[in-house]
Amino acid sequence: ETVSSSRVKEKDTCCRVMGLSKRVSFWSVEEVLDWVQEYYPAQLNTLHTAFIKHSITGRALLRMKEHHLERLGVESKEQQEILQDVLLLRVQEELENLNDIYAGEASDF
Q1: Fewer CB atoms < 10 Å away: N or C end of the chain?
Q2: CA 58 to CA 32: how far, in whole Å?
Q3: Pfam families, alphabetically (predicted)?
């Protein structure tokens, strides 16, 4: 088991515990803020106002890039950590999409 796969499992477990069992792309602004609070409490003050002001939902979070975080006032080190975790959320989202496709094809037989 790799570090990345254990982090995805860790995040998946966290999301269930936080009541965020739905896909990241369907997260509300409040659910995104719950994720930030859980993983980046030191950045919550910086991100809270900006995420509300710009309506950063799960779909927007998945599209987040370095320059977005820079504009929001997140320091370089934290940008990389956040972007790495966002990448893991993207991978999780893609796996769920593939599972849906496979489940749909399996039901066609």
Answers
A1: C
A2: 6
A3: SAM_2 (PF07647)
